[in-house]
Amino acid sequence: MEAGAEVEPLLPPRRWRVGRGLWRERDGAGSAGEDGAGADNDLHINQAIVFIEDAIQYRSINHRVDSKSLWLYRWYYSRTCQWILNLTITVILALAFIEEPSSLTVTSDVRYRLPSWNPPCGLTESMELLCFLVFMVDVSVKTYLIGWKEFWKNKWLMAYILTLIVSLADWIVSLSFFCKESVRIRRILRPFFLLQNSSMMKKTLKSINSTLPEMMSVFLLLAVHLALFTMFAMLLFVRTKDNQQDKEWVVYFRNLPDSLTSLLVLLTTANNPDVMMPAYSKNRAYSIFFILFTVLGNLFLMNLLTAIIYNQFRGYLLKSVQSSLFRRRLGIRAAFEVLSSLKETPASAQQSCVSGGALLQVLQKAEMDSHCKQAIMRSLKMCSCDQLSAAQFQKLFEELDKDAIKQHPPSPEYQSHFMQKMQFAFGHPYFGYLGNVIALANIISICVVLVMDADKQPSERDDFFLGAINCFFILYYLLEMLLKILAMGLKRYLSYPSNRFDGLLTVILLILEIATFAVYGFPHPGWRPEFMGLLSLWDMVRLVNMLIVFRFLRIIPNMKFMSLVVTTLLDLVKNLRAFAGILLVVFYAFAITGIMLFKGAVVSLGDTSAANSTHDNGTLQCGTYEQLEYWPNNFDDFAAALVTLWDVMVVNNWQVFLDAFSRYSSPWSKIYFVAWWLISSVIWVNLFVALLLENFIHKWDRRCQRESLSDIEYQRTVELMFRKLLPCFLWENSCWFP
């Protein structure tokens, strides 16, 4: 089958249609009456409406389609119900910030933190119970709509019920202990509610799971590499009689755990070149060991892991989009089949067909974007035939794969020749370029003034020049806004997001400037408004000026390569939601686990002797948790735990956390941090790189094939880009067809 050939729209399996009363054989004029030609037309219309809405949202059509179930189905997927469900998930996840230990403190620094407010027992538990009730309604409706037979095939729903049962049991235990228990299992399970509610996150998790075998082979190579070099290091850096020459052994390779930790951190280059310096200062030949370890581990094996993940995810976006298109076309064909079963459909027709009136009735009741609905109705009215074939029916709904192209209001038509010249001059793109140049001059002038005044005492500064140039630039921005409104008209001016941003920024600057003059007077030599009151007003004027840099975003579409990069980033943001959700789930679970393991472990120096190993005679050892004052990084509350995990994920100085928590809690705490590093910094970051490469290469290939794309093509969705590849995907999934 050729990729570009037009194929017959998708048809659900005949057994599926027969089981749901959506099929009637056409073996003659009288067969319609035999197979239920008198079926209720309203039911078929409602079924078609639901199937069309399923196609719009890329949902499965494998659900109950009787009249009561259809009402329940549309109610469940209504905006109100979905908003309530999403709000419930947000609330139950956000409870971690106010539950004991509460994050409602100004600082997480153990030296300055005041006792936090903790809610009374029963407050957050009542909110949890309400959330559980919503989830029970959610799982009950889902189970009913798909039926028991499909339920036993759906592992996610079964896991959903199991999670609710465990959470409710733990909730009861918590109340029985009057909320004083230290371990709450249900907190770790909360991210599952977010995970099961997103089909894209499930697909992403499935793709990650399929990648694990290949990743494990690289992890095994890394483990072998780390173990071999650890043995070599313990043989090279042994204890000698000269204590001055044993710094490498004392600090980094004293025993097997310390040796493994030192080389593992070196694999991320976080302690390079510190780990090498004691041995290198004694003999330069020792540098060969550390360089060889870094080259093999960091440059080869870690990048090999990136290559493997990218290879596995190279077709992830394509397969995901094709799968979505498959569901969309299946839903559209299902709608066609039920509409072709209406009484008004000619039974003598050689092939199934749908009347335009029936489709128009469905479109009027279906929940869909108004632009798509109007476009389909226009195409339907332009169609000369009264009966639509399957191919024509499918063709109409290709509008779903297109984004609305915004039409800007027309510019005003002036009769005066002078006004027409003014409109041409101030509506020309060069006038916008002049505004960008003025904004650049504004930024440069502010930076120059700030650099010149950086080393001056407050009493030596003269803000006259800065105040004067602020007046000039703000007046120009106001004039530019008014002239553009004159040339384009107010409605057309406001239809452009860049103009709305510029206008809002100009109004804010003007209001702040007027307030400054009212409070501090007009600029004059020796003008120092910061001495006359709070700094906030004057500082806000200078900070808002810096926002003018965003004016340069308007020139991006005029630069082809920059436009390619920016569109890649925008598409990445759209496709990154599933990956970000997975990271949020992992962050949440690890933060709760960290609170259970390390809550209260870190205390100030005056309250413990655990830090004695870091200082001698009152002098803290350089590079330690205490000397670097990392006290706010702890697991004493949920917010602090999230920040600590972020700092470890960045891997800059993460060996400080390994050392500190092994001293304050247990040496086994290193397992927790290494597991977090593997999941977040190694696996997730490489997944992010793979997705970025996939988006950029796809757009680069399209750019090479066609040097220029029309505005309409830029407005099309990702699904339409892959539509020509759909037949290949359908051939691979031929098991869906009768």
TrEMBL record:
Cellular component GO terms, alphabetical: late endosome membrane; lysosomal membrane; monoatomic ion channel complex
Chief place where the protein resides: membrane
InterPro entries, alphabetized: Ion_trans_dom, TPC2, Volt_channel_dom_sf
Coiled-coil intervals, chain numbering: none
Domain Ion transport as annotated: residue spans: 103-313, 440-696
Record Pfam families: Ion_trans
TM regions (residue ranges): 80-98, 157-178, 215-237, 288-310, 430-452, 464-483, 504-523, 535-556, 576-598, 671-693
Keyword DNA-binding attached: no
One BP annotation, GO: endocytosis involved in viral entry into host cell
Keywords of the record: Calcium, Calcium channel, Calcium transport, Endosome, Glycoprotein, Ion channel, Ion transport, Lysosome, Membrane, Repeat, Transmembrane, Transmembrane helix, Transport, Voltage-gated channel
Subcellular compartments: Late endosome membrane; Lysosome membrane
Entry annotated with the keyword DNA-binding: no
Family: Belongs to the calcium channel alpha-1 subunit (TC 1.A.1.11) family. Two pore calcium channel subfamily.
This protein's name: Two pore channel protein 2
Gene: TPCN2
